[in-house]
């Protein structure tokens, strides 16, 4: 239990760097970790059109390119929690940021707010691009 708490705190307060982006990420799903690499995430979006892509980068980052259909809620905004609380908790979500730090930090918030069907894009939009997957502006 102490190890899990320590891991959670480490992930919550770790800066967003490429080294933290490749570390295993936590999930808020009830049935265990649901961390996806870019290919798995793309397959999920192809097979499940109801998945909401939640991009927690800044609006400036979002405007440079995002996954098609993504909803942008800035993790750094002081109203992040209030904005996310307005989203439909019954829908499935794929959460990401630039490389994984902010989206990892958002997972406990989503869990606290009652989101139970959340997947995390390991490596964020950077990994998505490196996999050759498209972004839209």
Automatic annotation (TrEMBL):
Annotated keywords: Transferase
Keyword Transferase annotated: yes
Any Pfam family the entry gives: Rhodanese
Superkingdom of origin organism: Bacteria
Keyword Nuclease attributed: no
SMART domains: RHOD
The protein's name: Thiosulfate sulfurtransferase
Record organism: Fibrisoma limi BUZ 3
Record lineage: Bacteria, Pseudomonadati, Bacteroidota, Cytophagia, Cytophagales
